[in-house]
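DM from R.C. (forwarded with permission)

"hey, sorry to bug you on a friday — could you get me a structure for this? deadline for the figure draft is monday and I only need the backbone to look sensible"
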Amino acid sequence: MSEAQTAPASAPEAAAAAVLEALNASDPTGSEALNATVKFVASPEGTALAYGSLVLMALLPIFFGALRSVSCSKSKNASEMPETITSRDAARFPIIASCTLFGLYLFFKVFSQEYINMLLSIYFFVLGVLALSHTMSPLMSRIFPTSIPNKQFQLLFTQGSGDAKEEIVNYEFDTKNLVCLVISSVVGVWYVLKKHWIANNLFGLAFALNGVELLHLNNVSTGCILLWGLFVYDVFWVFGTNVMVTVAKSFEAPIKLVFPQDLLEKGLGASNFAMLGLGDIVIPGIFIALLLRFDVSLKKNSRTYFYTSFLAYIFGLGLTIFVMHTFKHAQPALLYLVPACVGFPVVVALIKGEFTEMFRYEETPPEEEAAAVANGDEPEKKKDQ
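My reply, with the result:
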């Protein structure tokens, strides 16, 4: 899946938005063998290990990204404010995504795949380093030695002078951020030079977590529009054409999680991968994160809708893998994930009598909330649709 978003101002948001631009090229669930010269038949153990690892890797960024999205929605730091997806964005998304996907398909047909992937490697090196650094920051804050001084820095770039001076870049960071950046850069160099699947997954997990954390749906109705629109998009481009699978196999970028089915036989040098596109993580993930924030807004000290949708995601992804493995054909994961992730929470809301309240819940965009606070007004968190 993918989303054509205008790149946000901050580095982490730029990384998150770029993920959704590139996700058009992801194989929906993928069990294609890459870099294989002969037909490889995976052992039952290798297959189980690969699929189980993909499911685990898909769950981690959704779970932790959703938790971090709650803090992100309350952040007053401009560099950490989320990008809000409106109903208009959601309605246009499948069309823009289809155009981008088909455009990439034509590019790979017309131009040399080697040169395109060289440019993509540079592009995703920068974004991957920023995304991984942002992902590591909370952990680094906890383990950073207190004996080492944590100095504060500011990167300020202005245009003009005097009263006409205008800030172009104003980024504040500290020693902890620099350490994260150095570690992320090492991973980035490893990925560019070796294209190793572990480095790919580190970047992919960082992109997915940033996407779930920083891309917010403004209400449940918008989430339904987005997910059902991409439901049609996914089914069409996988079952109707070979475009998505072709682009996914040609696109050498960390926009999918991969795990080798021959790991037990070949170790870390394995080369026959099962893969899962990041779009099948981020798109349901931002909806699950929205339901967590809805749970928080109810102030009932329960996470009913979050856990319901999270379990629904596990069920949908498991069903996808089962069907794909049974029929030996790539499946559009959203065909199974969307009905599960939307249907299960709606049924629970109907049973609990909170259906109307769920669809009335709406988040105030951070910039509007900040303006309301500055004016002394109390921003509304819930309003009738």
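R.C.: lifesaver. Residues 1-9, 21-38, 380-385 have pLDDT under 50 and may be disordered.
me: no worries. The beta strands are 83-85, 152-159, 166-174, 215-217, 256-260, 273-277.
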